[in-house]
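Reply to dn_fold:

You asked what the input looked like. This is it:
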Amino acid sequence: MPSLMEAEAKSAPEAVARQLAADAPRWAELGAVLRAAPPPAVLTIARGSSDHAAAYLAYLAMARLGRPVVSLPMSLVTLYNAPLAVARMLAVAISQSGQSPDVVETLRGLGGAGATTVALVNDTGSPLAAAASWCFGLAAGPERSVAATKSYIASLLAAARLVGHWQDDPALLCHLRELPDHLARAARADWSAALPLLAPSQRVLLVSRGLGLPIAQEAALKLKETCGLHAEAFSGAELRHGPMALVAAGVPVLVLAMRGPTLPGLVALAADLRAQSGSVLLAAPDGVPGRDLPMPGTSAPDLDPIAAVQAFYGLAAALAEARGLDPDQPPNLSKVTRTL
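and this is what came back:
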């Protein structure tokens, strides 16, 4: 019988289809508002997996819209009462539960200081939803697994919808409508070849770059949560600096290489790491030399990270079980985390 984590991850295509069927006029309305008075910058408010979704939003918005995006440390609002000058900026909070006081208080405070506030939240009856000027439901449905999967994928979709409607890009919006089919295929990707290397390990490095880096960050978090692995995520460019010293025999490196401008450099890095330590797994598209794991894609490279994490979740659930752990009962964690 599959774990709740695996089952819920595999249900993500249905969650994506539900979200795509909802709120289209309101998304278009927000896009028109943002184009009429373009915010000079974007602030994101999130923690954990939601913060990784916010990082995807940041890369996508900066690459396509040219707007600076900053992940705001919430303690500046909740603890330091910093007088932030945020008038006309866009503040986007991302959350599954919408319950954590620091996320709610920060978004409410930014709205009071003149920012346009948006909540991307699974629970549209939550305090976070009430604190936002614009609220969009993730439509992931109840998530019973402690480790978020389908809600993370739904958050990535919402981030892409925000950028697509702000940019008024019909091509991107069309590609989004094709996501459920691509994710259903990605859920069937076989990454079991990674198990013999990762199952006996105690540490692992996750490497990607650009739009793929938030997926590496999410993957590292899931390996910590569900597999008891000390996992860290690095940009491929940053790894070539000080963190390269971490690469040693017996420490696996999982390189997530997706289509786009970062692909050649990550493939070259994987080859260099393989020559140095040998413990390298390269997830890459068809036809890439040295590929160990199939990297699923979509109809647009900017959306490939969503398919990549869909494939990874299957590996994470299988790896937890291979290590004798229950992915549905990670120690010392609860579904809703409340911080100040």
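The chain has a mean pLDDT of 94.
Hope that clears it up.
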